[in-house]
Amino acid sequence: ATSFEGKRITAGGDLKLTVNDFMLFGELIVENSKPDSGDTFNNMGYQFTVGYKIIKSVQILGRIDILDPDEMIGEKNTLAIIGCNYWPTEATKIQFNYIVNTEQSQLKFNQVLLAAQLAF
């Protein structure tokens, strides 16, 4: 883990719109960092997701994630994600994501992610 000494201000917000089986979601996070040891950095990250429930228990999604750090820190990183959410019951969720390596990605290969949730 890295440590940070200095002043840091982070702000963000998100907006979600759901109409029937269609969903739009967007999120923005901005950060201003002034380390004790140097220059001020301005970083920004945002994502846009669109989803559609093809049936009550299955939702397909597309998402773009963008990390746009200060040019002194690193290069812009863009990920394209195709996903599917499945709710076998009201208390369980299975999520499948396929992360596509874009030209502006730090990834050198595509990834498959699988997650499961259980609510009590």
Would you write up a description of this structure?
- The chain contains no helices and seven strands.
- The protein is elongated.
- It is mainly β and 120 residues long.
- The protein starts with 5 loop residues before the first strand and ends with a strand.
- The model has no long low-confidence stretch (mean pLDDT 89).
- Strands 1-2-3-4-5-6-7 form a seven-stranded antiparallel beta sheet, with no helix packed on it.
- A hairpin with an 8-residue loop joins strand 4 and strand 5.
- It is 0% helix and 71% strand.
Tags for this model:
120 residues, elongated, single chain, seven-stranded antiparallel sheet, mainly beta
Helix tally equals 0
What is the distance, rounded to the nearest whole angstrom, between the alpha carbons of the first and last residues?
32 Å
Q: What does the oligomeric state look like here?
A: single chain
- Give the % helix: under 10%
Mean pLDDT: 89
Structural class: mainly beta
Percentage of β-strand residues: over 45%
Q: Please state the overall shape, judged from the principal axes of the Cα atoms.
A: elongated
The total strand number stands at 7
Radius of gyration: 18 Å
Q: Provide the spatial order of strands within the biggest beta sheet.
A: 1-2-3-4-5-6-7
Largest sheet: 7 strands, antiparallel
The parts where pLDDT drops under 50 for at least 5 residues are: none
N-to-C series of helices and strands: EEEEEEE
